[in-house]
Automatic annotation (TrEMBL), chain A:
Residues 76-160 form the RCK C-terminal domain. It holds the Pfam family KhtT_N. This is Cation:proton antiporter regulatory subunit. PANTHER family: K(+)_H(+) ANTIPORTER SUBUNIT KHTT. It comes from Halobellus litoreus.
Automatic annotation (TrEMBL), chain B:
The keyword Ribosomal protein does not apply. It is a multi-pass membrane protein. GO terms for cellular component: membrane. The lineage of its organism: Archaea, Methanobacteriati, Methanobacteriota, Stenosarchaea group, Halobacteria. The chain crosses the membrane at residues 12-34, 58-80, 101-128, 161-182, 189-210, 222-255, 267-285, 291-312, 333-355, 361-380. Residues 14-378 form the Cation/H+ exchanger transmembrane domain. This is Cation:proton antiporter. Its main location: membrane. Keywords: Membrane, Transmembrane, Transmembrane helix, Transport.
Amino acid sequence: MTVYESDLPGVGKKHEIDLPDGSQLVVVTHNEGRREVFLRADPDTDSEKLFELPDRLARQVGTILEGAYFQPVKSQDIETLLGGDTLLEWVDVGEDSPIAGQTLGESDLRAETGASVVAIERDDDVISSPGAETTIHAGDRLVVVGTRENCEDFQSRVEGA
Amino acid sequence: MAAGLLELGQVFAVLAVAGAAALRIGLSVIPLYVVSGMLAGPFVAGQVGLPYVSDGELLTVLAEVGIVLLLFFLGLEFSLDRLLAARSRISRAGVVDAAINLPLGIAIGLALGWSIVEALLLGGIVYISSSAIVTKTLIDLGWIANDEADPILGTLVFEDLFIAVYLAVVTSLVLGGADAGLNGLGRSLAIAFGFLGALLIAVQYGTAFFSRVLDVSDTESFVLRILGVVVPIAGVALALGVSEAVAAFFVGMGFSTSGHQERIERLLTPVRDVFAAVFFFWIGVGTDPRLLVGIAIPLVAVVLLTTPAKLVSGYVGGRVYDLSERRSLRVGLGLVPRGEFSLVIAALAAGGSTAVMRETIPALAVGYVLVMSVVGTVLMQRADRVEELIDRLRPGTSA
């Protein structure tokens, strides 16, 4: 891959990236931060503008393209990074989960995986700081804290893998 | 006091409307600002009995700040390293541009029976393309991502450097030399180059100073410190009969090495644009539309001669950059718009001592910029059709 960088006096910078199919991606970074992205099918044709992004959004999209995590938002599948290597994750308990019907103490999840259940979302209620005697039901959503590895172990135990 | 505030309010209100109209019809703001000044000034609004904006001291000073900031930004953007890195290509394209268009303007001036200094002023007016209009149109049309952007922007950089030297010389000719004889001329040139030389040395060795001036996180202080350096220096320059614009250019160059260039651009661009708008307005206020009628014939001649000349010089410049014929033509089209710097020269001419300098040249420059800013933008937008037309006109091609 070859990237050409050139100055655009009074405008900003231009990067031209050769793509495998012979076309070129052209990124114009304006001095005020806006990015314009163009595609040029071959050197003789005009650049066709694909899209433009403001500075902040461009950085976020860049982070996604790079494969890094950033500003995760709570949702069914997305974990939240608490800092360091600790995650806050949501784990659904399915109908056929081996821990459905057990109390937290019986399931022994914390000792086995290192991840702790800090809350249980059940229908519209939230059971905060559940104790060893709290029973897990099928359909619960467990809010779990632990390292990435702990959380992954936890997830597989709950899924019965 | 109330009258002054009301008048200034009128200026900004009219500019806001003109800016909205420009956005609406997709034209550059510069011609519309100038026309709005003409309409709101003494020659149109004043004639029909409406409240009008007069060409007073307040407006003149604000317009001066506009000139100073325009040139300050040029200096800020101007990089000696960049120029040196691309010197062979930029200077060849730039030299072709200067060698064709400047002498053409001077020749037209002489043919109109003007003096050397007057003809030199016209040369500058027809030579300098508008960085503001050209750059904006390049972005609007997406040409900025194409190969033609390099020679166009490179030529603009060369012109910017050229105008700094040109203004330094011409300002002393107009303000100092014209009626003081050869002796006076020598003295004013000596003062100009002495002052500018001293400033250049200060800029060259003043990086530490400029960095320290700007070492503040507070946005307001940052903006005020820049204005607090550039405006007084420009003022001293003008008081000495030296080009305030060139002084501002050098200060801009000084700040460009301070490591704060991007922050300056981000924070001061709106300030510059506001004052530049007032400058264009002020040019309009000082223009009597009847004078435009009076210079219609030379104006048409100048437009008809200088448009093809820019096309040719731009085309050659594109070929110097190894571009295809089609892209080279675009380089020519891309350099046609004239704007802010032609008007800066016109404002300078208006301070001269002859009737041609005080009336004819400013009126001609205003008419010229109005025509060329619009014609240039339209030519760029219709580049494909221009290309077809040229193909058809050219003998020996299959089209």
